[in-house]
Design goal:
Helix content is 38%, strand content 18%. The protein is of the alpha/beta class. The protein folds into 2 domains: 166 residues, Ribosomal Protein S5, domain 2, CATH 3.30.230.10; 211 residues, P-loop containing nucleotide triphosphate hydrolases (Rossmann fold, 3-Layer(aba) Sandwich), CATH 3.40.50.300. Strand 1 and strand 2 form a beta hairpin. The protein starts with a strand and ends with a helix.
Length: 498
């Protein structure tokens, strides 16, 4: 029987890698199927699924000794997506598949015992791999066909059973290509800015955060609208570009979530304070994205910030600074993009009423200090905008509202982002400026620098806070349609430092 081989793939981090599947089969009195090439438990169990699915598809393969090699041998193979390609390679060795057509396709899919082809994760990045590898197309489970069809320029063959795959590869069955997925329409924001009464400073801070990609901390008594403000932020962010939408959609595909269209809406992730380290940062023997990666290009909102585990919060330092998260394991490491706007909300004290004009605080100074120390200085230093959300008056609630809508504010945000795109010749925001770029695009004249230097001494700002203040002032200048940082822009930026 001839040695057969074909191509499949696996996801490592955000990237997909080719896997060469080789099958050697020979007649034997002791039938067996051995899989080598660093397979995990799910891949090793494929031998039972494959042989049973092949038998139930009308082919006798129980008198064979088969060796399956998954190359490269030093790359750990995980998951059940190798079932279908292993079965097709085996059927090619048996002569059941007699045409060479299978070599033009990258093949993925899990098999049921009856020969059904079940969905897998990562169909989108694997379809992109098929295109970059100059393959004619990709054979996927029927339920993954719409997701894979987001990649144009290749054929996407969705099969429901192993019999269908055999028929297609032997040209005895024609399978229609799936219809292209419809582009997602922009939905209504979670909360419209016009629905939020009062809180003018909070709304202004949201506009600056959205325009420049800055992190934001909202502190104030319970019931003042901190969560509402955070949810309104997503509604004033500009739509994702095509490249950004592809990156975001790819992340959700790898995470195993259903994908039927490119996600042009920016993600808004709000994990509960009981989230684990792996849930927030990502993890697993084969690293999977956590909340920080799923929030990429969008918003990560942590409500009741001091209630989160300190260990979990301190782990946010790297993604907030590097805008990516690296998860290391014994067999290698995976890096996921984590370029998000971080929004946190907290009460000023355990009871929540410290500084309230009418309700007295019931906590001792020691309790307040212990509560506030749950948030470390280095973490606070990475937050550009510190806002106190005060209790609003009854007149602000019952009065006629003339607040701007999210659409109006979004137009100003988009205009400011266009200035930044022109400045950096990329989708980079002011919050991502390097120190070299700060000196190049926003050199401070002597009077402005003197004000900043005085603020550094009086407010005890760190070097990190120094440059973050300049970045915030640059965004305020963009919103004011100015090319240089003015005194007003700098003073407003300094007012947002704690």
């Amino acid at each position: 029987m001839p040695l057969s081989h074909l191509y499949s793939g696996t996801c490592l981090g955000l990237n997909a890698l080719l896997v060469d599947i080789e099958v050697d089969a020979a007649r034997s009195d002791k039938p067996s199927l051995i899989i080598v090439g660093l397979p995990d438990a799910a891949v090793r169990e494929a031998k039972d699924r494959v042989l049973t699915a092949v038998k139930n598809s009308g082919v006798d393969a129980f008198c064979l000794h088969c060796t399956v090699n998954l190359a490269p041998a030093d790359l750990k193979k995980e998951g059940s997506l190798f079932d279908l390609p292993i079965a097709i390679a085996l059927l090619r060795s048996l002569g059941t598949i007699y045409k060479e057509k299978y070599q033009d396709y990258l093949i993925i899919g899990e098999l049921g015992l009856g020969g059904e082809v079940r969905s897998v994760t990562g169909a989108l990045p694997l379809a992109m791999l098929a295109k970059s590898s100059k393959k004619k197309g990709i054979i996927v489970p029927y339920t993954n066909a719409a997701e894979a069809s987001l990649v144009t320029g290749i054929e996407v063959i969705g099969v429901k059973t192993l019999r269908e795959a055999i028929g297609f590869l032997n040209d005895t069955l024609k399978i229609e290509l799936p219809q292209l997925a419809q582009q997602e329409k922009r939905s209504q924001p979670l909360v419209d800015m016009a629905e939020i009464h009062g809180q003018l400073q909070g709304k202004r801070a949201l506009e600056i955060a959205a325009a420049g990609g800055h992190n934001l901390l909202l502190s104030g008594p319970p019931g003042t609208g901190k969560s509402l403000l955070a949810k309104a932020l997503a509604g004033i962010l500009p739509e994702l570009s095509h490249e950004e939408a592809l990156e975001v959609t790819k992340m959700y595909s790898i995470a195993g979530q259903e994908v039927t269209h490119l996600r042009h809406e920016r993600p808004f992730r709000a994990p509960h304070h009981t989230v684990s380290y792996a849930g927030l940062l990502g993890g697993g023997s084969q690293p999977r994205p956590g909340e920080v990666a799923l929030a990429n290009r969008g918003v990560l909102f942590l409500d009741e910030l001091p209630e989160f585990s300190r260990h979990v919060l301190e782990a946010l330092r790297e993604p907030l600074e590097e805008r990516q998260i690296t998860i290391s394991r014994s067999l290698g490491s995976s890096t996921f993009p984590a370029n998000f706007i971080f929004v946190a909300a907290m009460n000023p004290c355990p009871c929540g009423f410290l500084g309230h004009p009418e309700k007295p605080c019931q906590d001792s100074q020691l309790q307040v200090a212990r509560y506030q120390r749950k948030i470390s200085g280095p973490l606070l230093d990475r937050i550009d905008l510190h806002i106190t959300v005060s209790a609003i008056k009854s007149s602000e609630i019952t009065g006629t509202s003339s607040a701007e809508s999210s659409q109006v504010i979004r137009e100003r945000v988009v205009k400011a982002r266009h200035r930044q795109q022109k400045r950096f010749n990329s989708a980079k925001t002011n919050a991502e400026m390097t120190v070299k770029e700060i000196h190049k695009f926003f050199p401070l004249n002597p009077p402005i620098k003197a004000i900043l230097d005085q603020a550094v001494d009086s407010m005890h700002l760190s070097m990190r806070a120094y440059f973050r203040t300049i970045r915030t002032a640059a965004t305020i200048a963009d919103l004011m349609d100015q090319d240089e940082i003015s005194e007003d822009a700098l003073l407003e930026a300094l007012s947002y430092r704690s």
